[in-house]
Amino acid sequence: MTNSTPDILLIGVGVMGQGIAQVAAQAGHRVFLYDTFEGAADKARAKIAATFDKLIEKGKLARPEADATLARLVPVPDLASAKSALLAIEAVVERLDVKHQLFQQLEDLLPEGAILATNTSSISVTAIGAGLKRPERFVGMHFFNPAPLMKLVEVVHGLRTGKAVADEVERLARAWGKTPVHARSTPGFIVNRIARPYYAEALMLLQEQALAPEALDALLRAAGFRMGPCELMDLIGLDTNYAVTQTVFAANFYDRRFTPSLVQRELVEGGQFGRKSGRGFYAYPEGAPLLAPCPAAPLPAGSTLVVHGSGPVADALGDAAAAHTVSHVPTSSWVGLQVGSLQLRQTDGRPAWQVARDEGLAQLALFDELPTAAGGALAFATTGQADAAQAAGVLQALGWQPVPVQDAPGLVVARTLAMLVNEAADAVLQGVCTPDGADAAMKLGVNYPAGPFEWLQRLGRARVVQLIGALDACYRGERYRVSPWLQRGPAA
Ligand code: NAI
Hints:
alpha/beta, elongated, N-(1-d-carboxylethyl)-l-norvaline Dehydrogenase, domain 2, 15 strands, Transcription Regulator spoIIAA, 492 residues, Rossmann fold, 8-stranded mixed β-sheet, 7-stranded mixed β-sheet
């Protein structure tokens, strides 16, 4: 493509098409808008004009620039009126037959050198492009909603997509202010695949009655996520989220790792779709109830806190305990604290009852990954004769908000992060993306506070493998199988 701002044809100007058209027109392209629903193209242009009016009011956009951009948005009555387009982006209904037929038509209509791109979020790019005369010119260009704001574009390679075409799409996306990340066409591409455990682990914990939705949300927010899994599913729509989970499950030949949740199915069956239906995990407009207060026994004056183990978590415990009398056993085989005969250990994935049994401990509490900020919610579980109020009192004295949970393996944050890392590792193993691509995709596509490979670095490969191995030993199935990429070590 020699012209740096070629004409673009946007087909299907609903939620996504409209946003993508705005982005391309703002970058200087003439954008033809086509939609089979009569009047939809004019309506999309009017909606963009309304968005611009708001931006002008806020002083974020100048009128002449808005007018020039709007002049580049050209509704067309038929595809033949857009013959000069060198890039067609399709954002029509999510149906293989419709998309397939559309691209066959476009291939005959547009210049030979035109690039054909689909914004599909769940259909195989290879399948849509099958049967095209020039399959090397067909590629996925997957934007995120809302397209004008979300930085990520997954550049999805089907089996026959040409490298030059994918590179050209990457260049264009960059010129539009986006961050393109290359992905192989596999179910869920990058983001919708790696994100599955964020929902799945939460739903599994709910199914086991381990804790309440508002506790789950508080704990994951304390780990740095902008929204907890339950409030996020309520926002996305439980029906939509369930549909994506089912699609990924089926597209992976029913790999049990991606099994949908009975808890989610029941909410959907009951019409509790989340915010849009007024009720999901929570009732709206109220939203999540306040966390139930956790009974905590104040730490007796003069108590000595013994920090066990070494490394960043032991250091953080030492820092948090600095106002108290502290001693340190860096050679300990476990990481955590001891107060009198009560041990508080960071979870290694085994449930507390098992650690207590394996190591002959009478009083044991396990705690989760430490929150990213002081005062954050921190899950803990107790077993045996351990006094939950005493354990809570210790965590509170160190500045965290203790949240009691049932004795679930890997607790809440540790198991969620480990499973996100594991899924990302499998994606890399299978050539879906690079580690850097996965990190960028998760941070920009779903606003994660860190990328899975950044977490891997923080937690350490051995800890992630240990956590998932313990979950696997507990649940026995295919869900918690450690990715070979993680097992085989850094040389991979
Ligand atoms: P939408 O329902 O808002 O818009 C689809 C538009 O396509 C409608 O205006 C419809 O009249 C039009 N249309 C249907 N068949 C057509 C055809 N044969 N030719 C021309 N126009 C046609 O849907 P939405 O949400 O914008 O999704 C569109 C595509 O983008 C789907 O493939 C979807 O999977 C994908 N996507 C959606 C995201 C989202 O969050 N909504 C995110 C990323 C991708």
